[in-house]
Every structure is written in C-alpha cells, then in structure tokens.
UniProtKB/TrEMBL annotation:
Pfam families: DUF5683 (PF18935). It comes from Planktosalinus lacus. Residues 33-176 form the DUF5683 domain. This is DUF5683 domain-containing protein. InterPro entries: DUF5683. It comes from the Bacteria.
Length: 178
C-alpha cells in the first residue's frame, strides 16, 4: 500500500490568549499640573536639573558645553581687553615699554573695543544658554504630559452656502476637554 501526503500534520498547539487587557487594567500616569513649573524652577536653580527631572539626560552636556564655552570666551576676551587697556593707559602716561611695541595707539583702541564687544557677546550667549535651559525644561515637561488620544480628529466636510450658491471652504479642529 502506498500513501502520499501533501503536507504533514500540524504540530502547533493552541494556547489561550492571556495577553489581552481590559479597560480597567490599563493605568494612566496622573496628570501633574505643576510638573512644568517644577522643571523650570529646577533648571533655574541648577542648570540641567530640570532635564534630569524630565529624564532627558542627553541634554545636560549640551547645556554645560554651551555655558562653559561662553564663559571661557568671556574670560579670554576680558583678559585681552585688560591687556590692551593697560598698555594704552601706560602709553598715555608716557611709558613705551609695553608688550605691544610697534603697534599704533589707534590699533590698541580698536583691539580694546573688539575685545569688549566679544566679551559682551560671550556673556549674552551664556545668558541665552541659561534661559534656553529653563525654557527647554518647561516645554519638555509640558510635552511629556501631552495626551495623544483617539479624540483628536480631522473631519473634512463640504458646506454649501445657499445664499451665494457656492461652496464654503474652511477647516475646523475640534478638541474635547475631559
């Protein structure tokens, strides 16, 4: 007797699906309305602490690199400004033995102004990074609590205007508050 089989018998066993969740089993994190202001306060006290609070650790080196580089350039430009100013003051007092021999007084004045401007820009950038740190912590805490639900929808519809015998074009976004 010859038997021919087109396929083998299925050896998989059927297991009951226990992975389904009921609506009562799903837990939501409670909404904390003070979280954005708390994150901003933490970042204002210690730069980067708001990012730690929001668990965005990768932003901390960016903040400290920006503030640190700005402070470095501020101190470097302040030292240059002081050197140019002191040399110019010594020349006005009649001394000619400064480190900038062969450079005209007008050039020292220009270098002094440039260093002062760069010093001011560096300070503004450092303050900008500090403020950006606070704003970032606040916005990130707001976005962390943003709800993405099925209630948000965009339903285009055509509205006919019988008085003008034409179609009205427009868009409406409906947001339901709980």
């Amino acid at each position: 007797m010859v038997q021919v089989f087109a396929q083998q018998k299925d050896t998989l066993t059927v297991v009951a699906n226990d992975a389904s969740l009921s609506v009562n089993q799903i837990t939501k994190e409670p909404y904390d309305p003070l979280a954005p202001s708390r994150a901003a306060f933490y970042s204002a006290v210690i730069p980067g602490l708001g990012q730690v609070y929001n668990e965005k650790y990768w932003k901390i080196p960016v903040i400290y690199a920006g503030i640190g580089a700005s402070i470095y350039f501020y101190t470097t430009n302040r030292e240059d400004y002081t050197r140019y100013r002191d040399a110019y003051k010594r020349r006005l007092a009649g001394y000619t033995d400064d480190e900038f021999q062969g450079i005209a007084n007008e050039t020292l004045i220009r270098a002094q102004r440039t260093s002062k401007r760069n010093m001011d820009v560096s300070l503004a950038v450092a303050v900008g990074f500090y403020l950006l740190n606070i704003v970032d912590a606040n916005v990130d805490a707001h976005l962390k609590q943003y709800s993405i639900s099925d209630d948000l929808s965009l339903n285009p519809e055509v509205d006919y205007n019988p008085f003008q015998e034409s179609t009205n074009y427009g868009m409406r976004l409906t947001y339901k508050l709980n």
